[in-house]
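User: Thanks for the earlier help. One more: V-type proton ATPase subunit G. Can you show the sequence and predicted structure together?

Assistant: Of course, both are below.
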Amino acid sequence: MASSSSRGQQGGIQQLLAAEQEAQQIVNAAKNEKLARLKQAKDEAEKEIAEHRAQLESQFQNKLSETSGDSGANVKRLEQETDSKIHHLKSESSRISGDVVSMLLSYVTTVKN
């Protein structure tokens, strides 16, 4: 009887070892699956980040080209305004220069006591 009890214990130990190995395999498979999901999530996140970065860079380049174009237009507009004001001042000075000369001559030639 002692030997049959010993075999029963031996069989129980074998079952426990087999169950432990099976549990370890299940745990390892779950770890591997988790690592694979994490890697996939990381890859997807990096792809989204790269796409977003490219989109922002494109928007930045568009804004940069728009403002550069505006800068050239602003310079041209300012040059036109300046030329227009210079022309206006010259024409006004030509128009009133005779009156100014007459007024200055009258002050210079008038003697006060």
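User: Great, one quick takeaway?

Assistant: The chain has one helix and no strands.
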